[in-house]
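ok so heres the complex, two chains, lmk if somethin looks off
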Amino acid sequence: MKHLLSAGDLDRDEALAILDTATQMHAIQTREVKKLPPLRGRTIVNLFFEDSTRTRSSFEIAGKWLSADVINVSAKGSSVSKGESLRDTVLTVAAMGVDALVVRHHASGAVQQLAGWVDCHVVNAGDGTHEHPTQALLDAYTLRSRLGDLADRHVVIVGDVTHSRVARSNVLLLNTLGARVTLVAPPTLMPSGVASWPCTTSWDLDATLSGKEHGDVDAVMMLRVQRERMSGGYFPTEREYAIGYGLSPRRLDLLAEHAPVLHPGPMNRGLEISSAAADGLRSMVLDQVQAGVAVRMAVLYRLLSGAADSSTGSEVTV
Amino acid sequence: MSIVIKGAAPLGGAPVDVLVDGGVIAEVGTNLSGDQTIDGTGLVLLPGFVDLHTHLREPGREDAETIATGSAAAALGGFTAVHAMANTNPVADTAEIVEQVARLGAAAGLVDVRPVGAVSHGLAGETLAEIGNMARSAAAVRVFSDDGTCVHDARLMRRALEYVKPFDAVIAQHAQDPRLADHSACAHEGPVSGRLGLPGWPAVAEESIIARDVMLAEHTGSRLHICHVSTGGSVEVIRWAKSRGIDVTAEVTPHHLLLTVDLITGYDPVYKVNPPLRPAADVEALRAGLADGTIDAVATDHAPHASHDKDHAFGEAAFGMLGLETALGVVAEAMVNTGLLDWAGVADRMSVRPAVIGRVAGHGRPIAAGQPANLTLIDPSGSLLVDPAAQASLSRNTPFAGHTLPTRVVATLLRGRPTVLDSGLAEAVSA
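and the predicted structre for the whole thing:
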């Protein structure tokens, strides 16, 4: 595996290999000395065209714990407005002698495009409203830690699916891992052509969570409602959205005992998620953050150490 | 100096000799001779193509194209007249600018460059541009368009349709409701845009404007032309309007006759164009509409862009693709090889009707004695391997790079003077 651009790039074996490697990586997070040597002498650039605190920090820690040199480059703002083409920006950074680029871009497809221009490894850290494969991996990791094997598990993803790279990557990866996915959103926030996706859909959160529409639910993942969508006329008011699609205390009670609640953050408390849901025993929000570092360590390790090319032999030499 | 084209088939009919002298066709017959001979054996002779829709980028973006290089690309593509859209910098919204464009076209001397005037001042969609002054100028503008943006205000569109009537001019509408497809919309709204996470450009944003405008054209009794029709729904609305007697005409681009939305899945901005590439069902409907005459003309929407305006993320790259040098090949593949049009049909859609719509005198005329000698000689069994670096255009943004297209333009004559011979420019051109 040269790049990680889409969750759809991963077959079941490769996805499981990353998740298994992440389990090993996770173990060192509890140690006093959190440093492994495998990427010593390797250079990773976090090239972020869009602000991100948590994803960037997560990749930075992941790289550093594997002993790579990690440099953060902020290229915020449209390269068009700066008068430099995306191609020039990327080739300039890559020419410095980079082993891997971790790229976040506000435009869909930008990371796939630039992967074709450079020789180094490229990891998609979120492109526009398209994909965010490491988020899907950390979500799968988190779900597995609670539910075990995800085969035939039913995961419900709720919110602004149209503009969500998290949802797109999760549908692809969960499907690869054998889980069933139901997307829940008002019609205005359901993407065009969703009927062709490998999942079921619903406009009714209560009917879905109670299992009436698509069967018993094993986990629920709430998506963040972006501020700009609120003024975009996709739904009348925040109040109405919260009533229709928020994970309220009442809706929590519709879930089976074992079902966890996930959210990629940052959360809009009171809008898509109530504090009862965010802070309750089902909530795995902080587990997700912790899993993020382990999963990104696993991805960087497998891309840069060549482990991904040699079957699934992913034993980490510590 | 006289030229005889020996043994070519006018409109694909029986081979004849055509003698050209003094800028006109002097004689059509057999065993004719002239000072210069062009061997037309096995070739088809057509009236020179007329393009209702190009962007020649001058004034303003001479790094992407000039009127001279765009004219060369046009001649190589078999065109003898092209309309140059108004979205230049400065905008072609005064007599001075359109006269300059016409002057530069005449200086290049490869095709008749017909400036299109802006409908609204600065293409801002608020107040009428000086339409009368442009129509009465030396450039004698007959086509007005805000192409690139839609005249979306219904009242302004109504006024424009009414106002051009004394000049026998036409309003060419870029149909795109900006509330349904704003500036960020860059991919046909459907399964592909949904999967790729690209802002959708729904078919209804085009169709609803066309539906409104044909009713406005009926109300005002004016002439309306629809630019680059891209959906099956649009074809149906136009077919209905024509059946009702509304004076509406329409064009389709070569690329919308051949390429589909599936090509954008790799996010290559060379496939980013406005209106966007549509699904195969729309391509089929456009072909059928062009074949039955609902769509009157093929127009290239030739849109050169410097590479630094294309080397961006898909959503941020410039809209548009080259068209002049590949138009015939694409039409041959989509319409002729499929049996939908014969060569007479190609002549009608690429020359006769666009000349009538644009009121371009002396073009799109029959191949007969006494007619202006604006002619294109093509090899129907030839082919064109598209090499962006070898094209005359200053830009490289062709979606057909590396493809082999059927047919080949062999020669182009503008008022009896060869602009293209042996598939190359008759004389060198400098940008």
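quick notes: The first helix of chain B runs from residue 67 to 76. thats all i got rn
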